[in-house]
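Anyone? Bumping this.
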Amino acid sequence: MIEKVKFRLNGNPTTISVDSSRILLWVLRTDLGLTGTKFGCGESYCGACTVLVNNEAMRSCQLTVKDVQGKEVMTIEGLAQNGNLHPLQKAFMEHDALQCGYCTPGIILTAYALLNKNPHPSTPDIISGMNNNLCRCGAHNRIVKAVQAAADEMKGGY
Amino acid sequence: MKKDHYLELDFSDDLPEFQLNRREFLRVAGGGIFIFFTVRDVSLFSQEVQRRRSRHDLPSDFNAFLRIGEDGRVACFTGKIEMGQGIITSLAQMLADELDVTLDAVDMVMGDTDLCPWDMGTFGSRTTRFFGPPLRAAAAEGRKVLLVLASEQLKTPPENLITENGFVIDKIDNKKRVSYAQLSKGKKIGRHLSGTVMVKNPSEFKIINKPVLRRDAHEKVTGKAKYAGDIQLPGMLYAKILRPPSHDSKLVEADVSGAEQVDGARVIRDGDLIAVLHKYPDVAADALAKIKVKYNTPPSNLTDKNIFAHLLKVAPEGETVAEGGNLQAGEKEAAVTVEESYFDGYKAHAPIEPHTAVVHMEGEKVTVWPSSQTPFRAKDEVAEALGIPAENVRVISPFVGGGFGGKTRNLQIVEAARLAKLSGKPVQVGWSREEEFFYDSFRPAAVVKIEAGITKTGDISFWDYHVFFAGERGSQQFYNIPNHLTMSHGSGWGGTPGAHPFATGAWRAPANNTNTFARESHIDILAAKAGMDPVEFRMQNLTDKQMRGVLQAAAGKFGWKAAKAPSGRGYGVACGTDAGTLVASMAEVEVDKTTGDVTVKRVVCAQDMGLAINPEGAAIQMEGCITMGLGYALAEDIHFRGGEILDLNFGTYQIPRFSWLPQIETVIMDNINSDPQGGGEPAIIIMGAVIANAIYDACGARVFQLPLTPERVKTALNPD
């Protein structure tokens, strides 16, 4: 059913008229043109479609638009502020913590939510926090180091 | 390696048909100085093809270009694509160093079939080896042209001029200088490479062989990097296509009325191609699910369990890959003989980005944005599917979200092209994960049978090696064995008719993963029979200095101490060669003897790849190979029944995760005076063997089949 759905998207109040039972991933990518959020598996296994909903990392392939009514949604496009990269983005660049880059947006947003909850994670904390995001190129070790470096840089806040 | 077997992909349709002549290129590319050069690889490839197929002429065209623009920026045009392997950085390094410009001044134009010269595809760790040398030579030639132009302008003899950061400068009076931009402005100078241009000596490198971070990282961490699925055109429709349950299925009937009733959905039917198009992909998928369809699928008993017996039954006569000495003489010298069979199941490429393509047909002109490792092949395939001349098709390559060999196959592009023509709209086809598993060209299931013997003193006296269906790459052993025979049966990753129940193809270091698993497992068994430490046994049987050096480097880094296996330590070793590069790895594992679970704690890999253009990028590729290789070593295996693929998603097909990660240490041998060799694949080939050997060392369980699952480890521990 077409209805108006309101939520905040990357800090901006957003209203769209949409069949609210549609999948958030595809509404973000098509109706809203935010293609940084990727399709990988469609069944929540891979994490390429991860977005933040009220600062929680969630799989947008498993959410409907209705699920985010009235909530704060952030995609990878909303992470840099006024052109200034987030420490996680900088750390991923400085550590070459990516190869093909397709899983990267979901990985970075998962790490963002992880650091929100646990600003001083140990290496095992990072590994368990990232474990449900898949990367086929094998950038894992560098990702762990990048997340650690970002946490150090952020000193518990940002 | 006396033969290069990276040509087994059947690219017979793909021969160089470079139609863009120099004048056309000048028109397309605008002003500046143009340097034309030829990639040696193409002519070698064509000779090989001609030799094998005897039906095509050699190409005479230049294969790649670079442009010094009016703004002083340098464009590198390459038919290669960037899929994570990092050539967007390393090719730019080569160009920048030889031309004496900063790395930042180089723009890479990759995989655009209108702007870039023909290329057979991005696979086989070939870019640096074969595209690199002529690229460097072309840049060196470009620098020469600029010196001549500057000499005229500055009225200074060329020998008094130097080049630096995009300027030509008078050595004596450095205020006398002119930028490349000033020199190239408005000029269109084309010249063929003489073939005698000197590239820089390693001692002169400023950018080559220096570690450089990825140049595409900013786009990729901000979500701005465009992949095929991110291409959105006005009026574009997303297509979802009806799929059979099995590769053997025949469509009986389909009732599409349910789909047609979905608002905005268009159903297109062209023979067996039935698709629903909609402006939203999720709505197209929902509509597709409303189609009532009946297939006829013949029953099959063929499964991942009995496939090996089937393959051995249908295997054709073998072809000799290598032979020497006399096997019977070697058998007589042997004090101990070991005969074993090794098995490897089907593996999926499983890139996180599924096969995707956007096709836009405007009149007779077609533009394609695909996820493809073979854009020029895609161009020809689209032209053929649409019945139009190839020059009407332009393929523009966005970033590719992982390929690993799987995106050399372009079925989704042809589907999108057909649907774009039939619908009259731009069409995007993006496969679901289930489609990705179904239509993958899997690494083939394969069997290797080895019989080998050692003398009383631990020398390998004979080696009788037969590989079935993996392909021959990596089957050639490099030990010092006087009597040996290596044969490949059913060579080629595509198999022979009736062999595989679905498509197979090249999977990162094709054939070599299977061959190295078998060879290095068998070498370890021989070492144990000889009562020797597996590194000492290898050294005793190795005369190749380069391989000895790599093995010693790995042992040094690892801190290997000699012990006869099984020592209980869980240490394994394996060596191999791929794409001109030599690798030796050592691993430490822990085995839970109750569950059979294997934890890989540490992997050390030493690699001799000649000159490493970007040591940082090379190390990343090694780490990626080791991490990806954990998957096929420990878990990855396609389950199927006949032509039905039972793995539909990552729930059952497990690929490596963060929690699997060992400590990884890499060593790149200092060999900058040698030609660069492959880097994208070699370090993956040893992963099956090094872990299998470490498992044996940990607990005495010898597993002969990949992946080394807990069940198989338990069975090997308790053979009853």
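Late reply, but here is one note on the structure posted above: Residues 87 and 158 of chain A are 8 Å apart (CA to CA).
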